[in-house]
Amino acid sequence: MYMTVEETANYLSMPIEQVKRYIAEKKIRAIFDGEDYYVNSAQFHTHLEQVEELKRQIDEWRNTPIPDDIDVKDED
Prior knowledge:
Keywords: DNA-binding
Number of helices: 3
Largest sheet: 3 strands, antiparallel
InterPro entries: SinI_DNA-bd (IPR010093)
Order of helices and strands: EHHEEH
Protein name: DNA-binding protein
Organism: Psychrobacillus soli
Strand order of the largest sheet: 1-3-2
GO molecular function: DNA binding
Distance between the termini: 68 Å
């Protein structure tokens, strides 16, 4: 599915100018039909899946309790 630059900016939650800059820098692939740029949304699915997986791993790491240190001596 192809999206306009404005739709892409909304989809990625970033400013339109940043999307245009990424297209110019070839960080986002787009086609130009003579008037407007169109972006294929499929190129973002893998990236967004990887970002969600990293977020899940970070949350899991944050929620893992710190193990007791076996070398700690009770000073009582």
